[in-house]
């Protein structure tokens, strides 16, 4: 498989502050990849260095085999970036903005593709509206459209759904999924972990500028032993004292217990039987990406991989 993005041993400093600390990452062509981490972890800094907007202090980055600073134009042509900030020229309409953006890439006859992205991003009735007259969510749609004008093989979306309504989120993801199926590599940063879980096949987690975890989504959740949650509705609504130490919460009439594995279910049931407590309802919740994320971010011992 061709590597879409190769980040080798990259460090980036702002003064004495180390924002990227020996980051190593290889994203294959065709992947739908999530780059996650808390605020300030270094995600945007990494994206800026991949885009050549910011220069790494050490290490190297290639996009589809092109060095991002030594072969800037070739690398940039292969990359579409949806930035986190809304950057636009208020004097142009949506269609003009997309035509001008196409011009930056040397594409003059791009009308059919511009029409298609305008339609797919729900911008058809705003196509001739001035950028300054658009709502925040609509401007965000134009940011996505701008990143796609040159049909880049690699698309990076930096929190594209921040402040965006449910309808656009859905249509945006349908469109991005289609692009991925058609062979485009997608890299996504988001704070909506359920989006990453639903869309991405591989994931890297950044913490304080370091990659602290890198795995397939499936392995990520199954190999991180963050345990299961057993939810019980009981009659009477109390736990025997033996079980109180594994109780983690009480929500909406359900007592919640933390279990390390499935084998702990039977002793819990035995304790309830012994205490003559009736189970009205029982649910076993699998860990999800959010559980893994919280566990990793709260663990002071998490090491760089
Ligand atoms: N131009 C800059 N000058 C100084 N420090 C910076 C600059 N850009 C980023 N930083 C710092 O680098 C760190 C990483 O910031 P970055 O924006 O990459 O984080 P992030 O993971 O994208 O966060 P968020 O989820 O909030 O977008 C932060 O501590 C930030 O304050």
UniProtKB/TrEMBL annotation:
SUPFAM superfamilies: P-loop containing nucleoside triphosphate hydrolases. CDD domains: ABC_DR_subfamily_A. The keyword Metal-binding does not apply. InterPro entries: AAA+_ATPase, ABC_transporter-like_ATP-bd, ABC_transporter-like_CS, ABC_transporter_ATP-binding, P-loop_NTPase. Residues 5-233 form the ABC transporter domain. It comes from the Bacteria. The keyword Ribonucleoprotein does not apply. Keywords: ATP-binding, Cell membrane, Membrane, Nodulation, Nucleotide-binding, Transport. One of its GO terms (molecular function) is ATP hydrolysis activity. Belongs to the ABC transporter superfamily. This is ABC-2 type transport system ATP-binding protein. It comes from Nitrosomonas marina. The lineage of its organism: Bacteria, Pseudomonadati, Pseudomonadota, Betaproteobacteria, Nitrosomonadales.
